[in-house]
């Protein structure tokens, strides 16, 4: 039976208005019945095949095709109404404090090898995580997984209120296959078996082919074949999208209107889905100059965020305006009363007054710190990340001109930058935060001391911001049993964020998606926000079941 789910429109303000000039455009080709979809990545050759859904650098994860083979219990929408759509589960139900989840498996689901999907597969998949710490990347803290009649009951050591999506998005794997695998962390899984709508047909270093199942539990699929193609870089990917050689991608494309949309304005679509994840400057709190609150405060109010949105992000998403760092309108409901209407704004005079009061001086135009030393720092992002390079270049120029600090820009290769950010070997870097259906990820990623417990290398809180009270409040928010407790904790968390400037919020970090409607319609969009348009997200099967042939 085909799954049917009703979605409620969010009525959000448009993240990006797209208007294409049709003058001079070549006639578009007619829709092709049963056309394949080519999904593009700019990662270069993928030399080694691995279809392991648990391993982050497997080819199935890198290209994203794991999501059409292995499916989750439910899908949590990061846009729209943040609704949860049951998937391999017919029903998911949390207890009041979110420490226990009861799941009712969907009937009539079969694995791609014909075996029946059952509650035992759910129990096995979660026990695989529970018994293999390396797979528990979401720190689920499962304490028990049991069958209760037709249901499965998952119990956790602490509330999963802020990690509902991490739990529900876990891929289910077949017990009858994976029970015989000795080490799930190294298994390449050459013949993957899943419940998903497509099966693996062929693999090469340039592309992967998947074919639609004719026995998929979710019903008949409009798209018969998927090609996952890895282009050498963003330039090659953009060219492929513009020519129609690729159909679907998630990439930052400079001048996306002229480079992609205007090539076929009737069919080429770009949507930047606004989610609760900003781009921020992570600041090194261990050394000058960002170990000084006054300097952090001053830099925060000389950044021209309108210019960042216009020039660096090319209007891909709204300007970041709330002092809380929360993108709006998606995060509006979570902004504390104290900060409702309080917007980020440039105020050079106030910034220089803050510095003067803190003992800074100027030698001609150069800023001198209270120790008598010239103020300098370097902003870093990887070479080739065009939007980020432009963004930090704008900030460096603004800080130099308004405050007199010697702000430099460095663009190392991605591997060097990645190592530097984890080890804290930087002055400041531009980076995103995770997104969720609550503000937790934004504030945990930037302020949570628990990230620092891993040792020399960390996976967030890169600037080593150390505030035990912030960590305590974040734990309270994550584990509270009532909405009242969560609200009180969040209000104080935002106060710390605004007053102590652990990071500097710069811009929104929308989830980008490019696609065309020449052969298929029903895509997610600003008008129908049932999912993001990113082809490497867990919600891809939902999108593929909603696509229908274009007329």
From TrEMBL:
InterPro entries: Peptide/Ni-bd, SBP_5, SBP_5_dom. Residues 84-443 form the Solute-binding protein family domain. Keywords: Signal. CDD domains: PBP2_TmCBP_oligosaccharides_like (cd08509). GO terms for biological process: peptide transport. GO terms for cellular component: ATP-binding cassette (ABC) transporter complex; periplasmic space. SUPFAM superfamilies: Periplasmic binding protein-like II. Residues 1-25 form the signal peptide. GO terms for molecular function: peptide transmembrane transporter activity. PANTHER family: ABC-TYPE DIPEPTIDE_OLIGOPEPTIDE TRANSPORT SYSTEM, PERIPLASMIC COMPONENT, PERIPLASMIC BINDING COMPONENT OF ABC TRANSPORTER. This is ABC transporter substrate-binding protein. It comes from Cryobacterium zongtaii. The lineage of its organism: Bacteria, Bacillati, Actinomycetota, Actinomycetes, Micrococcales.
């Amino acid at each position: 039976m085909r799954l049917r789910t009703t979605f409620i429109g969010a009525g959000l303000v448009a993240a990006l208005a797209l208007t294409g000039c049709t003058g001079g455009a070549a006639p578009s080709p007619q829709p092709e019945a049963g056309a394949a979809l080519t999904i593009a990545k700019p990662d270069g050759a993928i030399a080694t095949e691995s279809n392991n859904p648990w391993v982050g650098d497997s080819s199935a994860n890198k290209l994203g095709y794991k999501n059409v083979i292995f499916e989750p219990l439910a899908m949590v929408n990061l846009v729209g109404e943040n609704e949860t759509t049951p998937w391999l589960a017919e029903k998911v139900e949390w207890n009041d404090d979110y420490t226990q989840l009861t799941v009712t498996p969907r009937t009539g689901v079969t694995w791609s090898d014909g075996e029946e999907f059952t509650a035992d597969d759910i129990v096995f998949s979660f026990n695989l995580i529970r018994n293999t710490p390396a797979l528990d990347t979401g720190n689920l803290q499962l304490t028990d997984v049991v069958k209760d009649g037709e249901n499965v009951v998952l119990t956790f050591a602490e509330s999963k209120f802020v990690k509902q999506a991490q739990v529900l998005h876990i891929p289910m794997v077949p017990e009858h296959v994976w029970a015989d695998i000795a080490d799930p962390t190294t298994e390449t899984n050459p013949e993957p078996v899943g419940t998903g709508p497509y099966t693996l047909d062929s693999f090469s270093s340039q592309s992967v082919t998947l074919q639609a199942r004719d026995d998929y539990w979710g019903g008949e699929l409009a798209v018969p074949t998927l090609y996952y193609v890895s282009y050498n870089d963003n330039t090659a990917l953009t060219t492929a999208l513009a020519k129609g050689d690729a159909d679907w991608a998630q990439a930052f494309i400079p001048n996306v209107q002229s480079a992609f949309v205007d090539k076929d304005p009737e069919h080429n679509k770009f949507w930047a889905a606004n989610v609760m994840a900003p781009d921020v400057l992570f600041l090194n709190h261990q050394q000058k100059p960002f170990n000084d609150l006054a300097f952090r405060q001053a830099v925060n109010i000389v950044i021209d965020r309108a210019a960042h949105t216009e020039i660096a992000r090319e209007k891909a998403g709204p300007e970041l305006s709330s002092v809380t760092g929360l993108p709006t309108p998606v995060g509006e409901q979570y902004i504390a009363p104290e900060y409702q209407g309080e917007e980020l704004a440039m105020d050079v005079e106030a910034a220089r007054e803050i510095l003067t009061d803190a003992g800074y001086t100027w030698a001609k135009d150069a800023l001198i710190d209270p120790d008598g030393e010239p103020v300098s720092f370097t902003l870093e992002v990887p070479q080739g990340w065009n939007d980020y390079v432009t963004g930090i270049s704008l900030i460096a120029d603004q800080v130099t001109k308004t405050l007199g600090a010697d702000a430099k820009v460095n663009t190392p290769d991605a591997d060097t930058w990645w190592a530097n950010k984890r080890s804290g070997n930087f002055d400041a870097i531009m980076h995103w935060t995770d997104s969720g259906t609550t503000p937790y990820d934004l504030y945990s990623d930037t302020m949570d001391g628990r990230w620092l417990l891993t040792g020399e290398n960390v996976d967030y809180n890169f600037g080593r911001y150390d505030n035990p009270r912030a960590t305590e409040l974040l734990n309270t928010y994550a584990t509270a049993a009532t909405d009242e407790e969560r609200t009180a904790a969040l209000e104080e968390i935002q106060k710390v964020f605004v007053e102590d400037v652990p990071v500097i919020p710069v811009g929104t970090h929308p989830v980008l998606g490019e696609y065309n409607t020449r052969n298929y319609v029903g895509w997610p969009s600003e008008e129908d926000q049932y999912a993001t348009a990113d082809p490497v997200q867990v919600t891809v099967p939902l999108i593929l079941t909603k696509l229908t042939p274009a007329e």
